[in-house]
Design a protein that fits this description.
Blueprint: E1 2-8, H1 13-22, E2 29-36, E3 42-46, E4 49-53, E5 55-65, H2 68-82, E6 92-96
Antiparallel strand pairs: 1-5, 1-6, 2-5, 3-4
Helix pairs in contact: 1-2
C-alpha cells in the first residue's frame, strides 16, 4: 500500500478532486495548509504597516492506494491537472504504508481501504 500526498494550489483544488473521482478514487483527506516560499514572498500593507508574506495558502490531498496501477493513475492524473509550466507547480510525495486499521469495523490492511 502507498500513501500519496499532493500539495495543490487552491485554484486547482476542485479540478483535481473531480479528476481523481473520475478515475475511481472514493476517499481522500483534504487539508488547508501553508507553504513557506523561499523566494521572498510578497509585501502587503495593513493599517499603514508593511508586512512580508512568505507563507502561501495551499491544499494538501492525502490518499492510500493498494495497487501500483492505481498509484500510477493517481500520480499522472494529479500531474496533468496541476501542471501550468510556471514556478509554483506543486509537489507529489509517495510513501509506503505499513498498516491500516478501520476503527469502526475492525478491518485492517487492504480491507480497511
Amino acid at each position: 500500500m502507498k500513501k500519496i500526498e499532493a500539495i495543490i494550489n487552491p485554484s486547482k483544488m476542485e479540478e483535481v478532486k473531480n479528476a481523481l473521482t473520475k478515475i475511481g478514487v472514493q476517499r481522500m483527506t483534504i487539508s488547508k495548509v501553508g507553504g513557506f516560499e523561499s523566494q521572498g514572498g510578497h509585501k502587503e500593507i495593513y493599517r499603514a504597516d508593511e508586512y512580508t508574506i512568505d507563507v502561501v495558502k495551499e491544499f494538501k490531498i492525502e490518499l492510500i492506494v493498494t495497487s501500483d496501477e492505481m498509484l500510477s493513475q493517481v500520480i499522472e492524473t494529479i500531474k496533468k491537472t496541476i501542471k501550468t509550466e510556471s514556478i509554483g507547480d506543486e509537489e507529489i510525495f509517495v510513501s509506503s504504508v505499513e498498516k491500516v486499521n478501520r476503527v469502526r469495523t475492525g478491518e485492517h490492511g487492504r480491507d480497511a481501504i
